[in-house]
Amino acid sequence: MKVTIYTDGAARGNPNGPGGYGTVLMYVDSKGECHRRELSAGYIKTTNNRMELMAAIAGLEALIRPCEVELYSDSQYLVKAFNDHWIDGWIKKGWKRGKNEPVKNVDLWKRLLAAMEKHEVHFIWVKGHAGTPENERCDQLAVEAALGDNLMEDKGLSHA
Fold first, then answer.
1. Mean pLDDT of all residues in 2-25
2. Which candidate in 52, 59, 144, 148 is catalytic?
3. Strands 120-125 and 68-73
4. φ/ψ (deg, to 5) at 154
5. 74 catalytic residue (yes or no)
6. Annotation says 129 is catalytic
7. What is the pTM of this model?
8. How far apart are CA 70 and CA 4, in angstroms?
């Protein structure tokens, strides 16, 4: 099964202020029926990069069966880690980069790698503020999550 995930995080103008992360999963089942599931969590005191990672984790952990996944994100930090093989280098160096500078968010990177294990995941960068449908969807998720109140809305992915 092929699943599309749109994901985003928002720090709401303050890197350490309240923000949130949002994820939408969309897929077509074996009967040709379209399904979607929305996950959002708001008012989280953390950095934007951590929220981007948490959004991707939320989407991948929601999948029950192995899938081919296209994950859209406007986070270059997240997408380049895999498309430019940064994460491979970090693991080989014991989660260090450059001149032994420690990699941030190692806990979340490890959780993301574990969530990816059973899936074939393709990370696709969506240019921020581009006005494209993909960017608009990612931005909408971030805003809804940042304004939300730990909302979890199931739109039918329980059997995916």
1. 79
2. 52
3. parallel
4. -90, 120
5. yes
6. yes
7. 0.84
8. 5
